[in-house]
Amino acid sequence: MAQISLTVDGTSLKLEADQRPTHIFADNKEIVVCRVNGVLKDLWTELSEGDVVESVLISSPDGLAVLRHSTAHVMAQAVQEVYANTRLGIGPPIKDGFYYDFDPVNTFNPDDLVKIESAMRKIVKEGQRFRRRVTTEVEALKELAHEPYKCELIGIKGPAGEEASVEVGGSELTIYDNLGRDGNPVWSDLCRGPHLPSTKHIPAFKLMRTAAAYWRGSEKNPMLQRIYGTAWPSQDELNAYLELLAEAEKRDHRRLGTELDLFSFPEEIGSGLAVFHPKGGIVRRAMEDYSRIRHEEENYEFVYSPHLTKAALFETSGHLQWYADGMYPPMILDEELNPDGTVKKAGQQYYMKPMNCPFHNLIYKSRGRSYRELPLRLFEFGTVYRYEKSGVLHGITRARGFTQDDAHIYCTKEQMVGELDSLLTFVLNLLRDYGLNEFYLELSTKNEEKFVGEDADWAEATDALRKAATAQNLELVLDEGGAAFYGPKISVQAKDAIGRTWQMSTIQVDFQLPQRFELEYSATDGTRQRPVMIHRALFGSIERFFGVLTEHYSGAFPPWLAPVQAIGIPVADTFSDYLGDVIKRMRKAGIRAELDASDDRMQKKVRNAQLQKIPFMVIAGEEDQKAGAVSFRYRNGEQKNGIPIADAIAEIKKVVAERTQV
Ligand SMILES: [Zn+2]
Ligand SMILES: [Zn+2]
Predict the structure, then answer these.
(1) What CA–CA distance (Å, rounded) separates 565 from 557?
(2) Helix, strand, or coil here: 363?
């Protein structure tokens, strides 16, 4: 047989012309798909002279997506086996899993998922091969006449690259056949692929839940039923994922917010707008107070600005041009009418503010500025309002009204490098003080197609950000070309206690707003110069950071943040007075201490304190009273007895002052 020359994973090879990637990579079961000349392809794909072939592991992002999408196929096949006449929608991979939309004869219920799963296991066991078959529009429409949604997709298939979806959108229209043991097709689906070589390459999967979903995301279309599932390269990874989900569920800040009486979203106020209850108020105030102290130490100046402004301000800033969708619609105010009802003076548009920057620029501009005043660091806990779609709202981590710990730094070009460096150190250290310790940084660089400002300034700012990031000895991920058009940005990603990543702080250089607002300062030589502006939110928003910390600590806040730091629990009623005095002394010492004077028995009180995740249970019985002491019981159940009252107070005060966890 003729031979062809190939490059396989960087090595030049001569192979028989009928060899396919599935043969080449036969020894490694982890390789489930490949790239041929850069394009992701099935392992069954035919190769030609000169092709550059790269293996793709099941555990890589591409491999996982192909695994999950292939599992979606198997699910659709199983659904049609178990429930004949179910029509198919689409079935793409998503983060950590996949879904498939169906138009079923009867709505699926949880029992159905069990049946579908077991049909899927049979298909996986059979090891059905996914075979790619090129077809034409006419043939596909005939073959899929019983699948109205698929036919609609064929109809919207544009030229290559346009509206690319999982089903259609490649340069060819393709159908994938699943081949049974005898090599004949047992099931087919319109799809552009690629897929795993066969169903037996699906190591571990699980169906998660059903949900309603409009066909192609539009309310004008029929409502379909979506089944979500997940698939992993091994059973261990699937188990770990399910455990993580269960753990995340236990830590969900929306649930803890109710259980710990921290905050709520009253229907009467509207979605995405929270109220903080007294206990949540304490946590929030402790967070803010500490932040204020640290900002003062770093020479920030505190400013305040209103929640509402005339439209002109957001025209100057450009927000109305490119951010109007994210803003609440305007109010028309100050209109004056003539006695006959005609308009004497037209009304003015006022907007709720989605950002604080324009206000700070006006403060900067309120008088002439000299180089001596720079860097000028303006800080505000500024509450902003953004009109988020109700579908994306998520407790206090994604809300419509929230308070940014927002600062804008105005400095000279010469000061920029040093400023960015010290800023990043400040940001990371402050996050560490709140108990986050694992970070990586992401640097977003210039999009060459779309930017304002001088190339040299971009280069310098990007360089400064990169240097500052490198100096932190943290992992640095490049987001090449990902910057907003007005300047490069660094963002701090923090890992929480269960390994999830949250985007926290951003440090954003802005070459645009100083221009739009014509900001100036007089330089040493008397000339008027434009300052560099740096936007910087450290928590992002207080509410969001509150939510992140709630989940990070699973509601068991360290004492300095805990709403109640110590709760007095007498062993019996007779010790209530003694313990009441101890609690009074603690309160005098500045500790947030309470006495549980309820009629509950001691064990119930301990249980309640545990549910409220209070760091110190201060217990007193006969021996304690005789000795002028108390016993501590910690959240983990450990106990320490016979602590003299003064020592008990000192211990609590120490961990609060040092912001350590107990
Ligand atoms: Zn497919
Ligand atoms: Zn800003």
Answers:
(1) 9
(2) helix
Ligand 1: distance of its center to the CA of 193 in Å?
Answer: 5
Give the mean model confidence (pLDDT) for residues 2-17. Answer: 92
209 Cα: distance to centroid of ligand 2 (angstroms): 40
Q: CB atoms < 10 A from the CB of 452, how many?
A: 15
CA of 21 to the centre of ligand 1 (A): 19
Which two tokens mark 32? 């489930």
* Annotated catalytic residue, options 157, 357, 369, 624: 357
The CA distance from 198 to 92, in Å, is 18
| Marked catalytic residue, from 251, 408, 592, 613 | 408
Catalytic one of 20, 353, 535, 592? 535
**Ligand nearest, relative to CA of residue 487:** 2
- Catalogue the E-assigned strands of 460-544: 475-479, 489-495, 501-510, 521-522, 528-529, 532-541
Q: Find the catalytic residue in 80, 225, 349, 404.
A: 404
3-state secondary structure of 642: strand
Kindly report the backbone phi and psi dihedral angles of residue 460, in degrees, each rounded to the nearest multiple of 5, phi listed first: -65, -45
Find the 73 Cα to ligand 1 centroid distance in Å.
6
468-to-297, 369, 411, 479 alpha-carbon distances in Å: 21, 28, 17, 16
Interacting residues of 40 by C-beta distance below 8 A, sequence separation 6+: 33, 34, 56, 62, 66, 194
Determine whether 20 is an active site residue.
no
Cis omega (within 30 of 0) for bond into 194: yes
Whether 406 is a known active-site residue: answer yes
Query: In the structure, how many helices (H) and strands (E) does the chain have?
Result: 19, 35
Beta strands in 106-200 (DSSP E): 129-135, 173-179, 185-190
Ligand nearest to the CA of 190: 1
For residue 535, indicate whether it is catalytic. Answer: yes
Count of positions (residues) in the chain: 662
Return d(Cα 44, Cα 31) in angstroms, integer.
Answer: 12
Give catalytic status of residue 295 as yes or no.
no
Angle at 409 between CA 405 and CA 410, to 5 degrees: 155
Token pair listed for 169: 């959108």
Strand partners for 205:
231
Strands 223-232 and 348-352: unpaired
Distance between CA atoms of 543 and 265, rounded to whole angstroms? 13
Give the number of whichever ligand sits closest to the CA of residue 165.
1
404 flagged as catalytic? yes
Average pLDDT taken over every residue of the chain: 93
User: 99: which residues sit within 8 A by CB, 6+ positions away?
Assistant: 72, 91, 92, 226, 227, 228, 229
Point out which residues pair with 211 in neighbouring strands. 226
Encode pLDDT of 135-188 as tens digits. 999 999 999 999 999 999 987 755 444 344 556 655 789 999 999 989 999 999
Catalytic, 552? Answer no
Express each pLDDT in 568-616 by its tens digit.
Answer: 999 999 999 999 999 999 999 999 999 999 999 999 999 999 999 999 9
Q: Is 489 a catalytic residue?
A: yes
Q: Which residues surround ligand 1, an ion (CB under 5 A)?
A: 191
